[in-house]
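User: Predict the complex.
Assistant: Input components as received:
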Amino acid sequence: MRQIRVPFVLWLFIVAILVNLFLQPNFLLPVTINNNLRVLLPLILVAAGQAVVILAGGIDISAGAIVSIVNAFLATRIGLNGDPGTAALMMALALLAGMAFGAINGFFVAILRLQPIITTYATSFLFAGLALLILPNPGGGMPSSFTKFYHDTMPLGLPLAFYVIALVMLAWYGLRQARYGRYLFAVGGKADAAFQTGVPVSTIQFSTYVISGLMSAFGGIAMTLLTGSGNAQIGDPLTLSAITAVVIGGTALRGGTGGIGGAIIGAIVLGLFRNIVSFANIATWWQTFVNAAIIVLALAMPGLIRLLRRGST
Amino acid sequence: MSVSLSARNIAKRYGATVALADASLDVHAGEVLALIGANGSGKSTLSKIINGVVVLDGGQLRLDDQVVEFASPYAAKRMGIATVFQELSLVPQLTVAENIWLTHEPLKRGGLINKQTLRHKTEELLDLFAGTVSSKLEPDTPVGPLPPDEKQIIEILKAISVEPRVLILDEATASLDNRQVQRLFELVTQWKLQGKAIVFVSHRMEEIFQIGDRYSVLRNGTSVGEGVLSGTTRNELVALMVQGATAGNVVARTRPTAEELAARNVQLAVTDLQAAGVHGVTFQLHAGELLGLGGLRGQGQHQLLLAMFGALPSTGELTIDGAPGHFTHPRQAMQRGLALVPGERGSEGLLLRRSILENFLIPSWRDFGFPLRMRKAREVAANMARSLSLKMGGLDDPVSSLSGGNAQKVVIGKWLLRDPHVLMLDDPTKGIDVGAKAEFYKLLARLCDEGKSVLLYSSDDEELIGLCDRVLVMHDGNIRVELAGAALTKSHLVAASLGATQEELV
């Protein structure tokens, strides 16, 4: 008899939706969903990339800084009066740059075999410093027509972010069905065993950082489209939020189990928690505390449940 | 398709340690070469060089008379060399099918994995061992929680799934029970006929003689002899392995008779112990007794030991020295003088990267006050190392620098430092060479003479027969048969393991 277990993050998701519905009756209107998702999209994209790294047993602390760099770069290169042609070119360049930054991380971690957490923490300052060089003071931006497109486009009545998420999931599904996906889980599960089996362990680890860099660059583009302006520190808080989303989503920090789907739902859950806090009329200076408390509780819940089960037998 | 693999004058150093000095072997299509040698003699290193996990420092590898160099396991695999690794190369989070076919998954057009074929081919492979493994073992079962014997079988299937020309079995039988070993040997015979060349690394003499065609002996990283197995005696091989000295693997020890034992104090009594995998076990252990626990693997022996030690929830009665004790945590068992030496040295018994000193003292640091009296601690650890005749560089060397037999001594030593009354051992000699085993038996005999009680679970029948006062044979979570005195024979033990009852035997 196989026991079907509903992933913990889905319970959180349902609870978060119910509470939101209670506080915000128009919560399920397409427009409201669009409002929520477009704000969350940068985090979702970064979390998806982070999930790939963590699955393979690494971690990428520099993801948020890459978002900042891309934001600073786009805000200065496109500008408030940029034309669509330049914008498309710059975005393509930003994606390439994101992959290059990821490759730097990958080189240190996979080739030089340095500790991922320290290495990417160090490179995050490198990237953050570069972002500040590009854009010392908040400013620059994008034409409002671009942000309007990002804010209001709802093909077939569904939010634009919805399609982006669907594409990410589709790409992930493809990876999982291919050898690459197996390698990812094998490297994260037990790298020695994978190596002895003939899995190209270093190449896989390297590639995860490139993927994370690429997803962070996508996150940076989404962030710029969302805010319409540049700020060299805008991505910083995303790193820890993304890692939290990955963990809430059921991916073990030691690697080998989990997936991108959980990370995406985890990111949405985090956003919904933030909604709850802001709609529940909690005093401003309590909001950070309450939000953090909910996250800590959510992270601890699986452990608490296990503890109670152990106690009862 | 005939194949031949030849390793010539292989050398490998790790820093200052010479793992292999001058090792050679030849193996040809359709034969089984038994690679034998004491632990630390370089068998594992040699097999890892042949399969590309370790890069050689000197010497030559020739495959079909062509010089080959393997930069990675992948290169060796492509040339048709597959290995069943002693430490297993399975990823616990992946399923049986995913593990077996990792790196050579059957693909559909477009590079996606063909799940039907994958499942189908995995089932075919599992059928090779049908009847000797649990029927719940399916392609989609995650590997992590499987018992060691099934993991070992998955590892074997994984190696054979690449349809290798050369197959290296490194201690592949260490975790298997009799039936599984026999099935493996039937398969090896088939593989021989198919023209595969097989290198069989094992400590079990019986198996070497049963399946091997030729042998090659390593001692201290050097090949010291090779030849045809038929016509060679056990003692000749052991003599080659253990320089000069002839090591008998049965220790000289006067075993107490049943009457003598009955007259002694009952150190530990277990009544109707129930736990997961243990269905009502009752027995007594006397002071100074060496009690064996035998039977096929996975018949509840491991769980019985864990349950007695408080590491597995259980019901039933346990009395120590006449006073009741029921433990819900190992700490309580330790306080009452019980010690459990785990079977998986690497994962359960030792912190491999930490020093020998630390490993010895982990359970007893509290005896050394605050701040820790290091001088005293070193003295105690050094004495223990001496009394175990531990071969080591120094107390500060990491445990990972020790050979298997010596590492196992550290596991036992750390518990002996707490001076337990009852020592429970969970298959302690698995993967240990003959010489180290003999020393280990002497140690157990000495402990019993000092009045300690030993409960030894072993998957090695010879060991149980040659060492123990009594042997309890477990079958399906129960003690089916008790063998002692004249009844303690190999044939009885094997029959009982396979499910014969006390009445049928006597």
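The longest strand of chain B covers residues 17-28.
Let me know if you want any component modeled separately.
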